[in-house]
Specification:
Layout: E1 10-12, H1 19-29, E2 35-37, E3 46-47, E4 51-52, E5 58-59, E6 62-64, E7 84-85, H2 90-95, H3 99-113
Parallel strand pairs: 1-2, 2-7
Antiparallel strand pairs: 3-6, 4-5
Amino acid sequence: MESPAGAVVALTNEHAGSDGDIFSHCFKLMKIGPLLGTRTWGGVIGINPRHKLVDGTETTQPEYSFWFTDVGFAVENYGTDPDMEVDNAPQDAREGRDRQLDAALEVALDLAKSATKPAFGERPLLRRNALPPRGGG
């Protein structure tokens, strides 16, 4: 009952890297809704800081990559393109405007006009069935 049953829109931008890249690409790949904003950063290969040096610092090495059914490993070093390109310019921040959020609201409201509630049907009976009668003994 708490799940959204209507329009879903996601925002992303060039600062979305790693899990932000992965989320943005999966949101788009799974066709949950439109992805708005700018292309993501393109850094999905994970690192592991496990080698300690004598001076107390650590080194990291790339070792966890991501593969997607549509583009393979190509999110790395490229990112994910949004369905709708919307950029915030520096002057927008100065003026207190957020073009991406405004566009997302407009798209979500437009999608909500045609959204329909799913036909859930009867609710399942969740109580335990009665136990069979005990045999004599």
